[in-house]
């Protein structure tokens, strides 16, 4: 073996890597710990992923834990490159002489400049050739939708930084919309709610825990849970705890949830009549980690009048989709954008 082919879901929150014939071999948070004020990755370039996520918000003065992607795109070029390089090295190892061919899933709404940033990062991180695929297409393939058939498939992929909505037929995206509202905005809405209502400052990790434990988009029954939340009192400056309810978190999440519903309905409004007709039977499939927010499929079903189902294992759909591209790389490579093209 001189080289391997790998598929990467380079996400705002999590990066997943799969290898042809082996499936998903790496699944780690997209976080890097660097020496403050520099782009030097700690532990000889190895403070990446889980190790670094544990440091988020808890670092001493000399260390910063960075999430180099924001809203689904690269916000810190050098750190993204260091992160990709670490993940590629870990998977590719030293057994292979030649750099891997890499298929990377990117949000459908990114600009040519942002695409170039992804391609250059991958190249400098050691990839021999990089191909780009659109995230909603990869998500739909990973969710097992019949994308090559002459019938409409609709995917709503809600990640950490972006929500991708697409209607696909005959292996092509017919309509799509990418909005930069997703799980991170849910966390931010919770942080703002805690500040405004309780004068309490909480970190991103605590906000995410609240969202996962008691967050919801619609009423879940009579006995909705509440939760103890710990943070810093913004007036006294001292640590304290308070109890928050599911209902107040649902209200706090209303704005980002509405933005996502709008993206879905606007995409449907642009669908060709024949494809819209197919969706009456085929319904909508949801993928991405934030599709796990309780009640979100319900509110989308209510807003659209269509059946909505959650894909199996929504967090890995995009990565599993890229692995289907890997299986067919020789056949499909001419149809994908790559670093061989002049973007
Ligand atoms: N059970 C859950 N309920 C609500 N949200 C969840 C749950 N599990 C994970 N999430 C959220 O899912 C998001 C991560 O999803 P995912 O890994 O699909 O995103 P990503 O691919 O990193 O982001 P993007 O596609 O936007 O670049 C995070 O915001 C996380 O808090």
UniProtKB/TrEMBL annotation:
Keywords noted in UniProt: ATP-binding, Cell shape, Cytoplasm, Nucleotide-binding
GO BP terms in the entry: cell morphogenesis; regulation of cell shape
Record flagged with keyword Lipid biosynthesis: no
Keyword Nucleus found: no
GO molecular function: ATP binding
Residues given in the record as ATP binding sites: 160-162, 208-211, 289-292
GO CC annotations, alphabetized: cytoplasm
UniProt cross-references to InterPro entries, sorted A to Z: ATPase_NBD (IPR043129), MreB (IPR004753), MreB_MamK-like (IPR056546)
A Pfam family hit: MreB_Mbl
Subcellular localization: Cytoplasm
PANTHER family: CELL SHAPE-DETERMINING PROTEIN MREB
Quaternary data: Forms polymers.
NCBIfam families in UniProt: mreB (TIGR00904), PRK13927.1 (NF010539)
Function: Forms membrane-associated dynamic filaments that are essential for cell shape determination. Acts by regulating cell wall synthesis and cell elongation, and thus cell shape. A feedback loop between cell geometry and MreB localization may maintain elongated cell shape by targeting cell wall growth to regions of negative cell wall curvature.
Protein name stated in the entry: Cell shape-determining protein MreB
């Amino acid at each position: 073996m001189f080289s391997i082919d790998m598929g990467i879901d380079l996400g705002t929150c999590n990066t997943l890597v799969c290898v042809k014939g082996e499936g998903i071999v790496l699944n780690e948070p997209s976080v890097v710990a660097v020496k403050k004020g520099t782009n030097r990755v700690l532990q000889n370039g190895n403070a990446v992923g889980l190790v670094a996520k544990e440091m988020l918000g808890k670092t001493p003065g000399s260390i910063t834990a960075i999430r180099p992607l924001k809203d689904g795109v690269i916000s810190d070029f050098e750190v993204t490159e260091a992160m990709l390089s670490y993940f590629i090295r870990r998977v590719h190892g030293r057994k292979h002489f030649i750099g891997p061919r890499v298929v990377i899933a990117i949000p459908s709404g990114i600009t040519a400049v942002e695409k170039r940033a992804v391609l250059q990062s991958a190249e400098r991180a050691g990839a021999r050739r990089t191909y780009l695929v659109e995230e909603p297409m990869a998500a739909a393939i990973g969710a097992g939708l019949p994308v090559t058939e002459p019938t409409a498939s609709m995917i709503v992929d809600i990640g950490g930084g972006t929500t991708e909505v697409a209607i696909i037929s005959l292996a092509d995206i017919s309509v799509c919309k990418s909005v930069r509202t997703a799980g991170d905005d849910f966390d931010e809405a919770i942080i703002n709610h805690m500040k405004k209502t309780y004068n309490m400052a909480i970190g991103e990790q605590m906000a995410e825990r609240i969202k996962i434990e008691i967050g919801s988009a619609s009423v879940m029954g009579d006995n909705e849970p509440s939760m103890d939340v710990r943070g810093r009192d913004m007036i006294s400056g001292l640590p304290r705890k308070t109890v928050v309810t599911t209902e107040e978190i649902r209200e706090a999440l209303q704005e980002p949830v509405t933005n996502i519903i709008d993206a879905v309905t606007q995409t449907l409004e642009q669908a060709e009549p024949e494809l819209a007709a197919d969706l009456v039977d085929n319904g909508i499939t949801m993928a991405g980690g934030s599709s796990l927010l309780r009640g979100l499929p319900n509110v989308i079903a209510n807003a659209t009048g269509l059946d909505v189902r959650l894909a199996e294992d929504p967090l890995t759909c995009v990565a599993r989709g890229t692995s289907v591209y890997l299986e067919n790389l020789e056949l499909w490579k001419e149809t994908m954008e790559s670093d061989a093209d002049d973007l």
